[in-house]
Write a structure and sequence with these properties.
With 257 residues, the chain is mostly helical. The protein is built from twelve helices and no strands. Helix content is 42%, strand content 0%. The longest helix has 14 residues.
């Protein structure tokens, strides 16, 4: 299955299959120049090698090339992975985090690279995600927030990242949602309008953003829907009329476009 760039080692030098310690595998057609090689610079060939020869992975965890170490770590014995949390390459450390038992993976909570902490956010059980909700990197916090128990999401009500606050609006318990009504980001308020209790909807009915008011109109009770028939924007008026017709089909109002 040849393809890709010319087969060279990680430093661009020629590969010598005859001198390779895995030469017996080549003779058994388990590897080959240009399609499956632990020491090629081209990552797909490295991955193919370890897919076909997982038993070789343990011997490659200290290879000088990070792609070789990372691909070996994906299939190596789990008992050999703990030292990789100190690997100089974040990609290798991330693989170790995803495979190690949680008790050992927690050691990466203070890893300086966000790639590793993102891996940890995917790996840890719900109960252990709280430290990552306070991470300095917004993407780490976002992944942790997507997986965390909704009960801890109020910790993020004032998060500086609007995408995270929108997620809080979508997942947090209803009793916390009114705290976000004055949020400066329209998409946060729109998410609120989809979920808040009906008695809270009037607080969003005069929102400056048409998208928020449209969401309100689609969920309004009869009194609020009648009020929103006077909205300055036609799509909101139409949504209010349709909502009122749904609630009171016998009293379908006329709405000017």
């Amino acid at each position: 299955m040849p393809g890709g760039p010319e087969p060279v080692d990680w430093q661009g030098g020629a590969l010598d299959c005859a001198a390779c310690r895995f030469a017996p595998l080549r003779q058994a057609r388990q590897c080959g120049l240009g399609w499956a090689c632990a020491f090629d610079r081209y990552a797909p060939r490295i991955a193919r090698f370890f897919l076909m020869n997982p038993e070789a992975a343990d011997t490659c965890l200290d290879d000088p090339y990070s792609e070789t170490r990372a691909n070996a770590a994906r299939v190596a014995s789990i008992f050999r992975l703990r030292p990789l949390l100190d690997d100089p390459d974040p990609g290798v450390r991330s693989v170790a985090v995803l495979r190690l038992p949680v008790a050992q993976a927690r050691a990466a909570l203070d890893d300086p690279d966000r790639e590793v902490r993102v891996a940890l956010a995917w790996r840890l059980p719900f109960a252990d995600l709280v430290p990552l909700l306070k991470d300095a990197d917004p993407y780490v916090r976002l992944i942790a927030a997507r997986r965390a128990d909704p009960g801890v999401l109020p910790l993020l009500l004032r998060d500086p990242d609007p995408e995270i606050r929108e997620l809080v609006a979508e997942r947090a318990a209803l009793r916390w949602l009114p705290d976000l009504i004055g949020d400066p980001e329209p998409m946060v308020r729109r998410a609120l309008a989809r979920r808040v209790a009906p008695e809270t909807l009037p607080a969003l009915a005069d929102d400056p953003d048409i998208r928020v008011r449209h969401e309100v109109a689609e969920r309004a009770d009869a009194a609020l829907a009648r009020r929103m028939l006077c909205d300055p924007d036609a799509p909101v008026r139409q949504a209010a009329a349709e909502r009122l017709a749904e609630l009171q089909p016998e009293r379908m109002p006329h709405v000017d476009g």
